[in-house]
Specification:
Elements: H1 6-19, H2 38-46, E1 52-54, H3 62-72, E2 94-97, E3 103-106, H4 125-128, E4 137-141, E5 145-149, E6 153-159, E7 163-168, E8 175-179, H5 183-190, E9 200-206, E10 214-219, E11 223-228, E12 233-239, E13 244-247
Parallel strand pairs: 1-3
Antiparallel strand pairs: 2-3, 4-7, 5-6, 5-8, 6-12, 7-11, 9-12, 10-11, 10-13
The structure holds guanosine-5'-triphosphate (GTP) and magnesium ion (MG).
């Protein structure tokens, strides 16, 4: 916990929220399983004088957080919200009596088709749960090499000076290093986590900067790959419609 730059992370979240046209009032970084900042969050809730709707992407822990808040406040509703590591666990609007005639409304989470998780088969969710702190995996690569994030996507280093690439994704994912010329064969042997018949698309990425600035490629639903800018030419193989963007690394 002490290793994470909270303010940097909060700034990043604020920027992302602003980009989609919303104005955040308070940002609290929270975990209901690790209890991070739960007290601050509960205090905020006790000041609310309206019903509270719990809205967000599927599988991010909305129902878990509701149950946590209720148990901390020694409230035992007839029915707690269901939780699971599968997406779309909450299927309907669920009203839960809170206090002073106020209600929590747990809502079904939404899924975005531009994220990798949208293309996963059901067994894959176990592999993508972020239960422990992310440990980055580092590869010092010469050009001509591919890293296959087994069953999910491929990252190829086409041209440029030798570079250290740091992969920040779920610790449970296996990474496989190979020569570019072998990567199609490896991919065909290893499609395990995506739904069947997902069309894969290649994206060419040219880094124009050559100033050693730390940059990253964020792959929606996975995490990000960070490295120093050295005019590299890269290639990503992703499910069609899955998005990525070049970012300043968050950590
Ligand atoms: N690491 C970690 N996992 C969590 C946390 N909160 C919930 N989870 C896990 O995340 C998964 C999804 O939790 P849910 O509470 O069902 O998520 P949800 O947002 O209600 O999902 P939908 O109902 O599909 O919208 C479960 O496997 C939880 O155990 C957390 O704070 N940290
Ligand atoms: Mg839920």
């Amino acid at each position: 916990m002490q290793y994470i730059a909270f303010n940097k992370l909060k700034d990043w979240v604020r920027k992302q929220i602003t980009l989609i046209g919303l104005e955040p009032i308070v940002i609290i970084l929270i975990s209901s399983t690790k209890n991070y900042f739960i007290d601050e969050f509960v205090e905020l809730l006790t000041k609310q004088q309206t019903d509270i709707y719990w809205i967000g992407k599927t599988n991010v822990g909305k129902s878990s957080l509701i149950n946590k808040v209720l148990s901390l406040q020694q409230q035992f509703p007839r029915k707690l919200s269901l939780i699971s590591y599968f997406p779309n666990t909450t299927m309907n609007l669920i009203a839960i009596a809170y206090r002073d005639y106020l209600y929590f409304y747990d809502t079904p989470g939404f899924a975005n088709s531009n994220e990798l998780n949208y293309y996963l088969n059901n067994n894959a969710y176990r592999n993508l749960n972020f239960e422990s702190k992310i440990k980055s995996k580092t590869y010092q690569l010469e050009y001509g090499k591919t890293i296959t994030i087994v069953g999910l996507f491929q990252f190829s280093f086409i041209e440029g000076l030798a570079t250290s690439f740091h992969f920040y994704g779920s610790n449970k994912l296996v990474l496989h290093r190979s020569k570019i010329e072998n990567c199609s064969r490896i991919w065909k042997q290893q499609i395990l986590l995506l739904k069947p018949n997902i069309k894969m698309v290649e994206h060419q990425i040219k880094i124009s900067k050559n100033n050693e600035e730390k940059i990253g490629i964020q792959i929606y639903g996975y995490g990000w790959i960070s490295f120093k800018a050295r005019k590299q030419q890269l290639r990503l193989l992703l499910p069609e419609n899955c998005d990525y963007q070049i970012i300043k690394p968050i950590l």
